[in-house]
């Protein structure tokens, strides 16, 4: 019984510590691939891929601008975007885009959509990925 209680408490602590940093934010919304497909059609939405240039060239979602999260110019490049317009960000798996979304929120962006599972989830759902030729 004590062991079961220990396991349950451990699971609860682990689950809460791994919870998405964006939870409770009004600015950031984690969205599914299907939701992103619809939201990306909005006229004023800014579309940002935060992967490296090499990753981008291997395959990207059409219409998205590449701004490398690891670039020395990342913060400067993000500051050039219109903070009053919504932004969709994605990366490979959702880690970098989640961090980017947090930075954008702190920088004063009005609405940031973060693709859950990144381009990996997008591909898994069977949505199109373009390749640089």
Strand order of the largest sheet: 1-5-4-2-3
Main beta sheet: strand number and arrangement? 5 strands, parallel
Shape: globular
Q: Count of helical segments?
A: 6
Number of strands: 5
CATH topology category name: Oxidized Rhodanese, domain 1
Structural class: alpha/beta
Provide the residue-averaged pLDDT: 86
Sheet-strand content, in percent, reads 5-15%
Supply the CATH architecture.
3-Layer(aba) Sandwich
Number of domains: 1
Q: What percentage of residues falls in helices of 4 or more residues? A: 40-55%
Order of helices and strands: HEHEHEHEHEH
What does the model show?
The protein is an alpha/beta fold and 133 residues long. It has helices at residues 2-17, 33-39, 53-58, 74-79, 95-106, 118-124; strands at residues 28-31, 46-49, 65-66, 87-90, 112-115. The chain has a 5-stranded parallel beta sheet with strand order 1-5-4-2-3. Strand 4, helix 5 (95-106) and strand 5 form a beta-alpha-beta unit. The longest helix has 16 residues, at 2-17.
Task: List the SSEs and their pairings.
Layout: H1 2-17, E1 28-31, H2 33-39, E2 46-49, H3 53-58, E3 65-66, H4 74-79, E4 87-90, H5 95-106, E5 112-115, H6 118-124
Parallel strand pairs: 1-5, 2-3, 2-4, 4-5
State the main characteristics.
133 residues; alpha/beta; Oxidized Rhodanese, domain 1; 5 strands; globular
């Amino acid at each position: 019984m004590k062991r079961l209680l220990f396991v349950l408490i451990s699971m609860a602590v682990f689950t809460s510590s791994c919870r998405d940093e964006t939870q409770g934010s009004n600015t950031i919304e984690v969205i599914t691939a299907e939701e992103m497909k619809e939201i990306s059609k909005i006229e004023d939405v800014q579309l940002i891929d935060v992967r490296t240039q090499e990753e981008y060239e291997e395959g990207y979602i059409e219409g998205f601008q590449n701004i490398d999260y690891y670039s020395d110019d990342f913060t400067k490049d993000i500051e050039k975007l219109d903070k009053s317009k919504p932004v969709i960000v994605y990366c490979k798996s959702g880690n970098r885009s989640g961090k980017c979304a947090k930075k954008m929120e702190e920088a004063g962006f009005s609405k940031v959509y973060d693709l859950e599972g990144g381009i990996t989830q997008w591909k898994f759902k069977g949505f199109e990925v373009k390749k640089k030729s």
